[in-house]
Amino acid sequence: MAIKKSDLYSSLWASCDQLRGGMDASQYKDYVLFMLFIKYITDKYADSDDFAPPVVIPPGASFKDMIALKGKSDIGDKINTQIIGPLVNANARLSKSDFPDFNDPNKLGEGKDMVEKLSNLISIFQKPELDFSKNRAEHDDILGDAYEYLMRHFATESGKSKGQFYTPSEVSRVIAKVIGISPDNAKGSTTAYDPTCGSGSLLLKVAAEAGKHITLEGQEKDVTTAGLARMNMILHDFPTANILSGNTLAAPKFKDGEQLRTYDYVVANPPFSDKTWSTGLTPGDDAYQRFTWGEPPAKQGDYAYLLHIIRSLKANGKAACILPHGVLFRGNAEAVIRQQLVRSGYLKGIIGLSANLFYGTGIPACILVIDKENATARKGVFMLDAAKGFIKDGNKNRLREQDIHKIVDTFSKQADVPRYARMVPFDEIADPKNDFNLNLPRYIDSSEPEDIQDINGHLNGGIPERDLDALADYWRVLPGVRAALFSPRLEESAAKQSNQPSPFGRGQGEGTEINVLLYSDSPHPNPLQQERERPGYAQLTLPLAEVKPAIFGHAEFTAFNAQATERFQGWRHATTPLLTGFGKDSHPKALIETIAEDLLNTFKPAPLLDAYDIYQHLMDYWAETMQDDCYLISADGWVAQPTRIVETDKKGKTKDKGWVCDLIPKPYIVARYFAEEQAAIEAKQAELETATASQTELEEEHNGEDAIFSGYDNINAAAVKDRIKELGKDPDGADELKVLKQWLELGNQISGLKKQIKEAEAVLDQKAYEKYPTLSEAEIKTLVIDDKWMAHLSAAVQGELDRVSQTLTGRIRQLAERYATPLPQLEDEAAALAVRVAEHLKKMGVVWP
Fold first, then answer.
1. Of 15, 535, 608, 776, which has the most beta carbons under 10 Å away?
2. Per-residue model confidence as pLDDT tens digits over 208-218
3. Burial class of residue 258 (count of CB atoms within 10 Å of its CB; 0-12, 13-18, 19+)
4. The whole model's pTM is what?
């Protein structure tokens, strides 16, 4: 039986974390990731029939040989000499510096402590579910995701100064997509390079987008991190990737002769504002012609890395680099370089990201996209401000799937989107008022429109038509709703038939003569009183409480709802065959990519709904549930077999804690096959709740001072029975006896109902358990696809439809309440209250000045 991916990864992390002890995560990761590496290459290559495997495993240097070392007093030394040493000697791409010292007492403890820690670490990777001998599909194997999972956690745990080895995978995916590489344009000769490759995640995302084995090369200054990158490449089935150690700026390793090697694609996440970038470089010496636009400041290395990237591109090359926002607007030497960059036409676009996305820093960053191929034809720079697109994830921010997709869609289409993205012409950038400053707020106002208060509306009442017009997107779809909810604001030239002054009786209304304040006790209309429309203002025709039902019940909203539901049903109809056709050895990642794209495209034309929000619902559900389900199906097929939950205590005794089925949890079986039994249980539970409430009410009613239950430390059946015996047939205790017997009767009813419910639930539980073996494959598919997956997604779409009405209702309520009471009326109410207060004070003998 396969294990869920989420359970596997979380248990792997939890087990490893328990063994860490006092070691820093930035160091402990090296031991864990080496174990993952040795386990993977053993599973994949130890028994391979390949005569020239990418990784050679010498006899005695496999994970199986490590298992034999468990418990031995010299386990650490043996791992170093019998496992790591032979591996390095047999594989030229590996270096001893790539791997940690397994015999370091400062990190692993001494004596028994080291033996126990290393033995336990080996045991973690002995789990049978960690079998990497069979990849499910290219870029879709369990190992690659496990590595990403561990790297993210280690980066999170390592802190600011030590988490720079890992670029968040979401940002890596954006970069890999915006440079434009795809299976259509990637050839066998395509090359990709990362001059500051860290653990290699950016290069691997580029390779994944290419869809085939392109040439990957990278350089990393930190020796240990370079080792992680080499292992990462092997773990992701790119064993031929060339990762070298060294300082890229001072001593670049990838050269053709004495010049920098050039590539089709370059990606990078260099250290932000590197203050030591010039170490090893002679001032003014530019052997590789990188700084012809000007030399970057000695204490700001951002442009040094960018210029190295541009120099490393072929004439038609494309690149993307993550840099701090400061590169967009800082002056002096950087301003000179920035002007040259813009004038060159190489800068295709800028993507602004939110703060706190990266593990090495909390400052906001941006992606500079370079495209040499179309430089001469370029008319401007495409700017995109995605700073608001993220979700909180622990102490960091993270791009959601919808954020990634929206960025890539918008950038690929170079589409103007208000408050989000636009193509900025070179003339606008070069204008003296901007002077080649590329700070995004200069060109994109991403702020929400200000909610302006209307003074006239506050003085004289009425909702400004301007505010209603701002809801134009709604009225285009629901014009009749506006007409049904609002009418023109009326003003009066005289008071209404009451003893109170008219709220419109003061001052001068817009477009009117001066109003006359009149009082009248007459039941007949005053001939001077007239009502006329006040231009530019409206009023609700319904009470506030009726606004939401009116929107929901309106024919136009019903039609809008039906159209959106029809869109979902169309997608469901088209998607169900893909889901039913999914089976053993199928590729989950290919499935979700297909159905998610179809869902997004289905709802993009839908008015009032954000297609990316609906897309996010699917991607969230995929991460929470569907992904695990699909990996179970990919491993075992459409099998729904419940497993018993057995716990073992310290004495070795086992206890059955029930059962579980991950693919089809019990509620789905019950809902489809045992609805009557469940309804009967729920009816009994309702009876139980009523009886319990009655007993509680009885206790509260007679629990005051000197009341019947006031003397009880704990009201229970035994105490009540004792009191009944004590009262006997005493006529003076008749009332108390009646209450106590009533309490006892309710208690017996509660006990009986609890027993009945427990027995019924046990019977239902057994029926559900016995149902699983009888399920046909078609029934399993119906339960999973219709009852579980589609029911959840349908509810999510309905939630988005409800949100449309709630948002509209909320804004209408806000405006109605804001202008409900004109200022003159407030003044009158305040004056009336002041009179009442004065009268109360007078009665109390207080003379108010």
1. 608
2. 899 877 999 99
3. exposed
4. 0.84
